[in-house]
Amino acid sequence: MTILPLATAHWPDVKAIYEEGIATGQATFTTEAPTWDEWDQGHMRHSRLVACNQVGQVLGWAALSPVSGRCVYGGVMEVSVYVAAAARGQGVGRQLLTALLTESEANSIWTLQAGIFPENTASVRLHEALGFRVVGRRERIGKMAGLWRDTLLLERRSQLVGVS
Question: Is the pTM of this model over 0.90?
Answer without folding.
Answer: yes
